């Protein structure tokens, strides 16, 4: 049996098990999704949103990219964010990074990697801000893990800089923003930062909105 055929077989087994546990599970899900959470995570195969949080299909709206970035010109991320906030009305958004992140580690190095240089450039900008603190440690892996943490906080700040979040905070006092880091050694998530609508927005990035919008 080919590797990909195992996936299809496993899917059949999973689907029938789910139907056995709850005959209406897929019928209910097919009608609508009402997730409370938007997860912005790393594409790394070892950090699957549902599995590590013990959640089922339908519970988390997910966007993943290399190194869990919130880049203000990324139409893909922004479309997911707008839909999650304005249509699904999610209550929480979590930016979830992880120690041992290859994308973050590559951003500390100088190797030319082709197209992905342009994506990693966004992480290098975070490194630049915190360089003196990160470079205190000589060990590359330790420095990468420090940057993982700084990067998560920076991406939570980037969410706050979007008009989508600022307008939702003004009009609906949601969503709450979370920065989480996942440790692959124990499989546990640690909270780094949590912000809600009362958090002041840096003046440079603050928008004003018409009252009716
Ligand atoms: Co990663």
N-to-C terminal Cα separation, in Å?
A: 56 Å
DSSP helical segment count: 8
Strand line-up of the largest beta sheet: 2-1-3-4-5
Series of secondary-structure elements, N-terminal to C-terminal: HHEHEHEHHHHEE
Instruction: Summarize the biggest pleated sheet.
Output: 5 strands, mixed
Helix content: 40-55%
Indicate the CATH topology of the largest domain. Answer: Beta-carbonic Anhydrase, Chain A
Number of strands: 5
Count of individual domains: 2
Task: Supply the CATH class of the largest domain.
Answer: Alpha Beta
Shape: globular
Which secondary-structure class do the elements indicate?
Answer: alpha/beta
Offer a quick outline of the entry.
The chain is built from eight helices and five strands, in the order ααβαβαβααααββ. It is α/β, with parallel strands linked by helices. It has two domains: 1-31, no CATH class; 33-205, Beta-carbonic Anhydrase, Chain A.
């Amino acid at each position: 049996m080919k590797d990909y055929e195992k996936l299809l077989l496993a899917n059949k087994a999973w689907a029938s098990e789910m139907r056995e546990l709850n005959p209406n599970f897929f019928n209910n899900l097919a009608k609508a999704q009402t997730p409370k959470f938007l997860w912005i995570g790393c594409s790394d195969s070892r950090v699957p949103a549902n599995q590590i949080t013990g959640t089922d299909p339908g519970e988390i709206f997910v966007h993943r990219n290399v190194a869990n970035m919130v880049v203000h010109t990324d139409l893909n991320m922004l479309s997911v964010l707008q839909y999650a906030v304005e249509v699904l009305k999610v209550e929480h958004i979590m930016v979830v990074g992880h120690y041992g992140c290859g994308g973050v580690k590559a951003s500390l190095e100088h190797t030319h990697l082709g197209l992905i240089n342009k994506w990693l450039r966004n992480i290098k900008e975070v490194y630049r801000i915190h360089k003196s603190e990160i470079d205190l440690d000589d060990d590359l892996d330790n420095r990468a893990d420090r940057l993982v943490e700084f990067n998560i906080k920076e991406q939570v700040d980037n969410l706050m800089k979007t008009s989508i979040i600022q307008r939702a905070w003004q009009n609906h006092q949601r969503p709450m923003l979370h920065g989480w880091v996942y440790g692959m050694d124990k499989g546990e998530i640690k909270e780094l930062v949590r912000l809600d609508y009362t958090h002041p927005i840096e003046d440079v990035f603050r928008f004003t909105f018409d009252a009716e919008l």
